[in-house]
Amino acid sequence: MRRLTALDAKVLSRAFFSSKEGGLRFRDFKTPETSDKVLVDILNKMVSFGYLTKTIGQGRRPIYKLTENGRTALNSIGFQLIEFEDVKRDIENLALEKEDLIELERQLDQLPTVRTFRQLIDELLAKNGPMHYKQLTQEILKVKQTKGKTPDQTVLAILERGTRGQNPRYVRVGPDIYGLNPSYQPNTKSA
Q1: CB within 8 Å of 130: residues ≥ 6 apart
Q2: How far apart are CA 21 and CA 149, in angstroms?
Q3: 72-119 per-position pLDDT tens digit
């Protein structure tokens, strides 16, 4: 996930909240605190990250649409879908001052990063000790969304891969039950 500034988040939020089916034009993103040059830079950056798509509309004016990657980016920086209506109203009605932007950026920096399945598996096994892979999956799905149809198989595959080699990350302690290997050395290579 690429690092986003407060202005980046605001631009993506405008794209998300827009009710325009055909996409947004440049002027739809315009706010009192952003110059045209800054806004062009942000929009181009969002397109290069894959968060927005850019097409040419009537009059050769660019049209921007939010992508699924853009939605994921918004979710990962702390926007929860349940709260979007309140956030939408605040963003549309609030012209942020420079100090507000600095504070918003500071808050965004403090948000937790998106964790991988393996990081979550490690955390859960360290906290709870050995667990069945289906129980691990249930706990992971409480904090992480996935588009995969078989998340339990993803978890099992990570655990199985982690038991291989001379320095395995995980140990199998029973049928489909795995724990952290207490002698695992992260700096050495494992298969």
Answers
A1: 173, 174, 177, 178, 179
A2: 29
A3: 776 665 544 334 444 444 554 454 555 666 676 777 666 666 678 888
